[in-house]
Amino acid sequence: MSFTELGLVPALLQTLAELDHRTPTPVQQQAIPAVLAGRDLLAAAQTGTGKTAAFALPILQMLAAAPEALDAGAVRALVLVPTRELAEQVMDSFRRYGAGLAPQTYAVYGGVNLNPQIDRLKQGVDILVATPGRLIDLFTKGAVRFRQLRTLVLDEADRMLDLGFAGDLDILFSALPRQRQTLLFSATFAPAIVELAGRRLKKPLRIEATPRNTAAKTVRQWAVPVDKKRKTDLFLFMRRDRDWRQVLVFVKTKKGCDELVERLRGKQIPADTIHGDRPQAARQQALDAFKAGTVEMLVATDVAARGIDIDGLPQVVNFDLPLQPEDYVHRIGRTGRAGQPGEAISFVAADEAPQLAAIEALLKQALSRDEEPGFEPKHNVPPTWGAPVARSVSSVKPAKPAGRRSAPGNWVGFDERPKTGGGRGRPGNSGQKPGQNTGQKPGAGSRPVAGVAKAGAKGRPGGGRGR
Q1: pLDDT means per 10 residues in the chain (467 residues)?
Q2: Domain housing 263
């Protein structure tokens, strides 16, 4: 199948040809015609499957087909993402694919000054990519309005729920027009995702472009048993022994990132880090230097690394195993992209056996264990694949964030603000009856997913600020 068969306009086809995109991926083949037809979409698509183009291309075409003058603060298409890095990546994709159509595209996220974002939004934008917390901040200040919104995309919705953004999503849904197209993309059809889709989507087309929780076949995966205190020495040895030149390293904590980078720099190895405590400008500078090759080792936490997209990345090293097994799939999806070979090496200490067991259960296969001579662990990693696991780390929920916020006082739905002040109660508490000239109550008017039974599971505690 070619992109021409998907019903895309000549301007997009020409841009795709210039970008050397010749054949649509499975998720693009299924999603693009459905989005162009106006369907809501519930799609399981992982990193590296071409999912961004699956929603960006049809959105660009629909906006171009129905040009509209933008009011101050107006947004015609909204893409919600969990992290700053993913926001930048998605915005860049819209700009590349829309080069022949010139849409007004912008991204907003926390960690940077709010005022330039307010000034830019006064002009209105066709496509806004945003993290939930910063978007709420902007709405509270009257900088963004949703009257002209036609399409909403939730990208990596599972990650947003994992990070505790369920409450923020409920607040945002209460302000959006009832008549809209909603596209939900997730790595898995977890119960919380199915429940969210049942409340917020209208008879969506459900597609699953790739088997769940699988890595690209071009990625070679294995584990190296090692004592925790020797992980840094092992990394330094393997880098020199295998002549690693560009490695994305995942570490569990921000402190661990900083300690590893300090050790690498002490060995005159060009290294930098990306984590939530670093300013956005510093994070972007580190990522750009890594892509350019001036930084060889980029050390990151799971949250901060979300959205990193690097062509031809040869290695990913799990210095620490993730607490959530699904994050393992996301991590190693940064290598072995577009059919290229890649390696995913995991350093495993004895106390990480439960995480390893959860990962192998998710993959339905064991990771081969290759001890490195001279680094054999004194504390052996117990058997995992096929052995019972006392407690699955995938069931561990994060602590409820402190200070969960309610909707702002001006949040009454559909962008209608009361002429007089309002309290900080739930959306709709503006002195009018729920649903009377105020839009809808959260969840009102939603329909269950056709053919999808509600799982009954609820999203994780809300209140995260989407920074």
Answers
A1: 89 92 90 95 81 94 93 95 88 93 93 93 95 94 94 91 86 91 88 89 86 64 93 93 91 92 93 84 86 91 67 88 83 73 91 90 88 91 63 35 48 45 37 40 40 39 42
A2: 219-394
Pairwise CA distance, residues 363 & 331, whole Å: 14
Helix (H) and strand (E) counts in the chain: 15, 14
CA angle 105, 53, 185 (to 5 degrees): 95
Q: Which amino acid is at 5?
A: E
- pLDDT for position 448: 38
What is the chain's percent helix, strand, coil content, to nearest 5?
35, 15, 50
Please answer whether residues 356 and 321 qualify as being in contact, where contact means their C-beta atoms are separated by less than 8 angstroms: yes
Give a yes or no: residue 38 inside a domain. yes
Structure-block tokens of residue 399? 């602590």
Strands 181-186 and 125-130: unpaired
Identify whether residues 178 and 230 lie together within a single domain.
no
Q: Which residue, among 449, 411, 458, 457, has the nearest Cα to 199 in the 3D structure?
A: 449
